[in-house]
Amino acid sequence: MTNTYEVGMDGPLTDLLVDTGRFFTRGEVSRDGRTVHKKGGRSDSFYRDRWAYDKVVRSTHGVNCTGSCSWKVYVKDGIITWEAQQTDYPSVGPDRPEYEPRGCPRGASFSWYTYSPTRVRYPYIRGVLLEMYRQAKAQYGDPVLAWASIVQDEEKSRTYKRARGKGGFVRANWDEAVEMVAAAHTYIIKRWGPDRIAGFSPIPAMSMVSHASGARYHSLIGGCMLSFYDWYADLPPASPQVYGDQTDVRESGDWWDAGYLMLWGSNVPLTRTPDAHWMTEARYRGQKVVVMSPDYSEATKFADEWVPVAPGTDAALGMAMGHVVLKEFFADRRVPFFDEYNRTYNDSPFLITLDEHAPGVYRPGKNLVAGDVGGELAEQANAMFKPLVWDENADRVASPNGTLGHRFGDADAGRWNLILGDLKPALTMMDTPGHEMVEVELPCFANDAEEPFGLRRGVPVRRVGDRLVTTVLDLLLAQYGVARPGLPGAWPKDYDDVEGIYTPAWQETITNVPAAQVIRVAREFAQNAIDTNGRSMIIMGAGANHWYHADVIYRTMLTLIQFCGCEGRNGGGWAHYVGQEKARPITGWATMAFALDWHRPARQMIHTGYWYIHTDQYRYDTFDADTLSAKEFGNDLFDKKVTSDLYVQSAKLGWMPFFPQFEKSPLVLADEAAAAGQEAPAYIVDQLKRGSLKFAVEDPDNPENFPRALTLWRSNLIGNTAKGDEYFLKHLLGTDHAVTAAEAEGEMRPKDMVWREQAPEGKLDLLLTLDFRMTSSTLMSDVLLPAATWYEKHDINTTDMHPFIHPFTPAINPPWQAKTDWETFQLIADKLSELAEDHLGVRKDVMATPLMHDSPDAMAMPHGVVRDWSKGEVDPIPAVTMPRLTVVERDYTAIGAKYGTVGPLLDKLGTAQKGLVTDVTSAIAYLKGKNGTRRGGPADGRPQLDNGIDVAEAIMSLAGTTNGHLATQGFKTLEKRTGVQLHDLAAEHEGKHIKFQDIVAQPQPVITSPEWSGSESGGRRYAPFTINVERMKPWHTLTGRMHFYLDHDWMIALGEQLPTYRGPLNMTRLFGETPLGEVNELGVSVRYLTPHFKWAIHSQYQDNWFMQTLSRGGQQIWISPQDAAKVGIKDNDWVELVNRNGVVSCRAIVSHRMPEGTVYMYHAQDRLIEVPLTERNGRRGGIHNSMTRIMIKPTHIAGGYGQIAFAFNYYGPTGNNRDEVTMIRKRSQDVTYF
After folding, report:
1. What's the rounded Cα separation, in Å, for the pair 59 and 69?
2. How many other CB atoms sit within 10 Å of the CB of residue 486?
3. Burial grade of 299 (CB within 10 A; 0-12, 13-18, 19 or more)
């Protein structure tokens, strides 16, 4: 018979042996002998239990840190216990360091949020609003009517808006919260139109499914999605201006390939922590590292040389370095490598006409184009968009391949390339026989009065008909002050000429950088490029990019890179890192996010412009647009205009979008057109011509034109990114604020915009936020819904720093009542569809969209000449002289069904990215099999999008970077236009299709695709524009080359056709702020900067216990000992900062690393932890952006021409905030919080 035993080991003898162990321990042994339980003493049981786990899950962090690090998340008993770095990245090869391990202390602390006191666990609604809603619903029965009764009652509306930010949240259930949101949206669509609803979520790359969820919902209902890259001032406008591309940059592994590395306004060890090792390790192979920074930064510690440039004066340094390079490598001697590069890849040889403004004195004008010269050249297709060069071989003008005019239309198929053939463009007219010499007057701003004046310097010219022309390089040499024999004009004597503008000695008076250092660094940068075939690199970042004149600063840097033949090289060129901008499967994300599978186009808005108008910051512009223009040294287009006038003009000409579109609902306009028997576009044009219809931007403070609902997810708008935060509180939300600025008076008020004497407060009816933690945005919201964290959902993540795509996977299910963003917006969409049965039904929606980049729209304005239909200068023609008008049919009862499925428009139209259309029928077939199809209803037979994995599969299936078949097909399509072979770049991966299960198993490198300009073929490190340089594919610009010269009328008006010096704004002159350095009863006046924080990623992490411990905790300001001494501030004192925009109360850190005259309040310290009441107004202090406001630069809202045209997150005004000044003083040390 079989022996049986009680639960124990392997048998009686074994049990006996094991049981004797109880005599050798003080612990309690379990009956089965398997465990020992110890109490007290020096046991290691706690340690062992602390690091025990049941499972490990791969995930990452969606925080816009750019790290995109793969993490192991450990779970014990259903509880997330800790995280650690993954170490299974594919190797980059034997000749360089690896990408792993990736991570930083901030990321290693994320799991704290899961169970933290700040976790949003349940739906919340502001109590006073919820009570009103319940009463109204009981009275009316219908949720939409209930909401309408609240917002139509001025007293009720004012009451709940005034309660924002003052507590009073009560827990609600999901059904009630979703119903209120859907009812509000339904009412707004019905009463005012869908373009009064906006959504904002930043940086899709950090979690593409989550971003796409809300974006898709808003796009389906006809709401507008606000951009993010420009709003953060992370977008460098110089990138589209120069490259016709937005921030396509190299991965960090390519830093290793550089022979000379400059960090300019970038603090890599702090902001790019997982990648900083590439910078430090490359020095062991001979790389020199030079850091330009005003303070002794984290990066400076690792530098071979520190260039301590004064804040905001970087363009002076760039111009002086350019002066040295041009003089020594272009004028004093010619370098064949530089000559050939500049002849081929940028606009150096292109011809610019010179306009005579005084006898014998000329000014640079427009590009000479084929349409200007008559004959066969003028008869070409798109002749007005084919700029010309001077052919040295034939000694006449010629039309090279690859220009904007060659890009569109059948006539030039196969000629959109950079192949010169027998053509040899002259770099300078001095290389041509029979040239003349004339004097040109160039606008300059380098004087103490900050008023423009003319620099008169000579250039060689040739005659083309009755025109004088010179090359862009000739103008650059004149602009930079590089003399050549025989040229007339006033020139610097030598490098030591302090009066010689743009010399090293001149810049020293502005930047404080020694002239000798500038000369040495410039020579080294150029000589290294010669020695290494272009492997000199500049890493640039927020320190240079967050200024009002950031585009000018950047252009001086990019000019150095182009002069030295560095762009389009591994190890050379630009590397802009501000924000996690690179959503590698961009086509798939964009298609899902903007619901382009169901409707086209989508409403997309320039975020900075939206809030400039809707938070009424335009009312506080106490200077006109002409103040900062070139005035008579430009073209006087801004004379007697203020910035808001220019914004109106930009919107009406179709350059930049604005929402709402018109003073009437776009649904009503469609109905009116039908009733009138006209097509909607023709009807609207007719109404505009009659003056019976106006654009909403012409009267933004009219209640008909208010933004009515805003949804935030993955965003802390109010506690992080809101430039002019206090203006948001005042005008948008209608609650307590600290604005003391005076409104504009008299001539400083707009002429083309209605000025209402009483500025509205509380425009917004509904602020909805989805978040997993409490922030200023959630505390200001009307409805707050609990979101899943990054360890609780399925999603995907990429970055510009490495080539891998990472997954989010849930370590646990969303706890409490949290839901994923995808699930939340599906609930709202379903409820809106239900309410639409009675209130909306099927409606026609008239869409007004701007003239788009990467389309024939970029040829709307010959020569970039501004002609305004509203002034009678031209007729209003949709998509030519005004916005494109398109009618979209929306079945509001089917929003939920469409949200959750892939639409049929892809079957007909395919996907479009950068002007390239791709057939995706194979991807749709795959998705039907992988995700399954919907049965019945309006989405019958379409692939399902039921969860995060389904959406991730759709995104990756529809993008060439993750679907090799589409990448290869895209290149083959592009070959038909370029006439050069490209498809082999992706052919090695034509059968590769990255799926979600693949990235869960291991990080997956992406595929070379026409969506981006660089190549990863063969395992090389990604560097932008390598396809352009190696395969002769043009850039997406007017000339098809990288640009030095910009001839849009508004660029000329501002005097910025060429790289130049523009310093920080003079806030005393513009707004009456106290001059820098002056001391009065409010303290000392200092420049106020907000760089990235060491112990936070934006507002994330700064509130977590670990980061609070590593930093000093709470808000803090860094100040120099010199400034602190002026007003008696000691380290750790409580201080108060005030200016016209707001007030901050925080602790001071007095540090020798800070330059005199500048303070830092690191971005982004929310007002949630240890923020006392201020002495200024007795209310809680503000955030870092309480001292700032929106400042629109007119050239950033120009459009309709070449590369100066709108695309989402491509071009637009930036949320720059570094020109501000503030007063800082020591306050009472007896602080209170309530």
Report:
1. 9
2. 9
3. buried
Burial 965-983 (b: 16+ CB within 10 A, else e): bbbbbbbebbbebbebebb
Which residues are CB-neighbours of 938 under 8 A, at least 6 positions away?
A: 891, 894, 897, 898
**Closest listed residue to residue 1101, CA positions, set 122, 80, 118, 210:** 118
Predicted confidence at residue 630, as pLDDT, reads: 97
Q: 1168-1197 as b/e, with b when 16 or more CB fall inside 10 Å? A: bebbbebbbeeebbbbbbbbbbbbbbbbbb
CA distance 1161 to 1178: 21
User: Cα separations (Å) of 1136 from 286, 720, 811?
Assistant: 47, 19, 44
What phi and psi values does residue 1147 have, to the nearest 5 degrees?
-95, 150
Rounded-to-integer distance, Cα 878 and Cα 340, Å:
42
Residue showing tokens 């309709």 = 1200
Structural tokens at position 676: 């009138």
Percent of the residues in the chain that have a pLDDT greater than 90, as a whole number? 89
Dig out the tokens for 1183 from the structure. 């955030």
Q: Both tokens of residue 1143?
A: 């007030």
- In terms of Cβ atoms closer than 10 Å to its own Cβ (0-12, 13-18, 19+), residue 85 is middle
Which phi and psi angles does 1124 have, rounded to 5°?
Answer: -60, -40
Dist CA 184 CA 834 (whole Å): 13
Query: Which residues are 356's β-sheet partners?
Result: 362
Pair type for strands 1158-1160 and 1083-1089: parallel
Phi, psi of 810 (to 5 degrees): -75, 120
**What order do you get walking across the sheet with 783-786 strand by strand?**
169-171, 124-126, 783-786, 766-771, 709-713, 197-200, 224-226, 603-605
* Residue 551, Cβ density class (10 Å: 0-12 exposed, 13-18 middle, ≥19 buried): buried
Using a 10 angstrom Cβ sphere, with 0-12 exposed, 13-18 middle and 19 or more buried, the burial of residue 278 is: buried
Q: Which residue has the tokens 């300078």?
A: 428
Task: Identify whether the C-beta of residue 183 lies closer than 8 Å to the C-beta of residue 835.
Answer: yes
DSSP H helices, 936-1055, are 948-957, 964-978, 984-987, 996-1001, 1026-1031, 1049-1053
Question: Mean pLDDT, consecutive 10-residue segments, the chain of 1234 residues?
Answer: 47 74 76 73 62 92 91 94 93 89 90 93 98 98 98 98 97 98 98 98 96 98 97 95 95 96 95 90 92 95 96 98 98 98 98 94 97 96 98 98 97 97 97 96 90 96 97 98 96 97 98 98 98 98 95 98 98 93 96 98 98 98 96 96 98 98 98 98 98 98 98 96 97 98 97 97 98 96 98 97 96 97 98 98 98 98 98 97 98 98 98 96 98 97 98 98 98 98 97 98 97 94 97 98 98 98 96 97 97 89 88 93 98 98 97 97 90 95 96 98 97 96 97 92
Length of the chain: 1234
Which letter does DSSP use for residue 1104 in this model? S
The CA distances from residue 277 to 92, 99, 274, in Å, are 15, 9, 7
**One-letter amino acid for residue 564 of the chain:** C
The residue type found at 555 is R
- Look at residues 954, 841, 937, 830 and name the one whose alpha carbon lies nearest to residue 891: 841
Phi-psi label, residue 940: left if phi above 0, alpha if psi -120 to 50, beta otherwise: beta
DSSP per-residue string spanning 885-905: EEEEEEEGGGHHHHHTB--TH
List b or e across 443-473, with b for residues whose CB sees 16 or more CB atoms inside 10 angstroms.
bbbbeeeeebbbbebbbbbbebeebbbbbbb
Beta strands (DSSP E) in 236-382 are: 260-264, 288-292, 305-307, 351-358, 361-367
303 vs 309: CA distance, rounded Å:
15
Report whether 349 contacts 532 (CB < 8 A). no
522-527-530-533 Cα dihedral, nearest 10 degrees: -70
Residue 979, H or E segment: none
